[in-house]
Design a protein that fits this description.
The chain is mainly beta. It folds into 2 domains: about 55 residues, no CATH class; about 80 residues, YopX-like domains (SH3 type barrels). The chain contains 1 helix and 14 strands. It has a 6-stranded antiparallel β-sheet, with no helix packed on it. Strands 9, 10, 11, 12, 13 and 14 form a 6-stranded mixed β-sheet that branches. A hairpin with a 4-residue loop joins strand 10 and strand 11. The N and C termini lie far apart (about 45 Å).
Length: about 150
């Protein structure tokens, strides 16, 4: 078996951004670990041959689904993707089936709105495009049916 099991999350610290002033943290990607109640993401630094750990906000932890969009961008839990017809889907972990899934959050067709699919059945459609995440783009979560 050869798959990447990666996580991403926003750092706990507030960092200064050149364009926005204060930011609520930066995204870090790597391997997840909980140590004494602190959630940490470890990144391997190739030029230094060691690992760097970042304390992250546990509410922003997202796991990599193993899929990429049509532009080869990784699709993570809590991401929002769009199909060629303009429908938006949120990626989530479906606990009762132990799998990643999509739920349609904005649709051109009333029958699609609120429908759920397992990640792999919708991902066969090669035209999915990453639009953002629920953390960075909450405006995409405005559910509805397009008129």
């Amino acid at each position: 078996m050869n798959r990447e099991i990666l996580f991403k999350a926003k750092t706990e610290m507030i960092v200064r951004s050149y364009n926005n002033g204060l930011d609520d943290g930066i995204w870090v990607k790597g391997y997840l670990r909980c140590d004494c109640g602190m959630w940490l993401i470890y990144q391997f630094e190739y030029d230094r041959a060691d690992q760097v750990a970042y304390e992250v906000n546990p509410e922003t932890i997202c796991q990599y689904t193993g899929l990429k969009d049509k532009n080869s961008k990784k699709i993570w839990e809590n991401d929002i993707v769009k199909d060629s017809r303009g429908n938006l889907y949120k990626v989530f972990w479906q606990e009762n089936y132990y799998q990643f899934a999509f739920i349609c959050i904005k649709a051109n067709d009333a029958l699609l709105f609120g429908a759920k699919w397992d990640l792999w059945s919708l991902a066969k459609n090669k035209d999915l495009e990453l639009q953002g995440s629920i953390f960075d783009n909450p405006e995409l979560l405005k559910e509805g049916i397009e008129e």
